[in-house]
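INFO  loader      accepted 1 record
INFO  loader      residues=339
INFO  predictor   begin
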Amino acid sequence: MQLYLDSFGAYLYVRNGMLGVRTRAGGERLFALRDVSAVLLTKGTALSSDAALLAAEHDIPLLLIDAQTHRPLAQLGSGLPGNIATVRKNQPLFSRAPEGFQWVASVIAQKVARQRALLQTLAEWPDAPHAYAADLRVTDRIMAAAEKNFVAWTPPPTWDAETAAAQAEKFRGQEGTASRVYFQQLARLLEGRMDFASRQKRPAYDPFNAVLNYLYGMLYTSVHLSQLKSGLDPYLGILHADRHGNAPTLVFDAIEPYRPWADEVAVRLAWSGNLAEDCFEPDNQERGLWLASAGKDLVIDAMLQFMETSLPHAGRRVRRKVLLDLDMQQLALRVKALA
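INFO  predictor   done
INFO  writer      dumping tokens
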């Protein structure tokens, strides 16, 4: 369970060896440490030093997150070396080695495969517009070519820093082409149901992008926490390292295969018609759009339920939130195995 403190004045403290949460209205609740997997706090909340130390002593990640986007802004840890020293020593090497780029190619290939599968599933919906199905063949052909390139990628015989930088730029271009036609296809599906013309980051200028931004923020937090649990440094990435050097760039890299999960939740919410006007509020500074409290409640509940659904994995079915942890553990093993 994640403790999520997002109401102004909420306070995290310690009582009888447990973590307690007190709201400004006077409500209080205690949580046993064994039940807490992470603590998430937003601006306007507070915690005692005892609570911070107790969380660190019990390896409970404590993240400060953006209330509007749900993305992590900072983390608090014990300050002691991680328990997987080989992973930490090898990760800087992995980030510029051919093995690291091989992993990047595999996760982008997985992302494109999941995007293609989602588009095919949406085409089977009874109310899908005729234009959507008519254009899907062309879209899928472009995306299939990109997926094939990532699956087939092998490092060149000579490898240096200049080669790595050039390869990262090429990956970004190929991935960008696939994403562009993918979102154009989603726009055809949503026409008449929810405003959406193209993918926008922050700020969002339409409701669908506002929903996507928040869902991606939830995924960023989940990936960040999984990497911490696996002994990985979220701030030492590969594909995004050169463009976002002071950000959790390994999270930016690793989140790619899970974006289609958020996309599916967003489409289902749009299709349901439950996202009314009061689910959104204007961002006056950027002239954009954010999710309001009512919208956040709907989106968070839908995403949490979706993450409890399962997928086939290694001969069994695994919940999506568990699969994410397993994937980060496998990444840590790849880093550890680097010669």
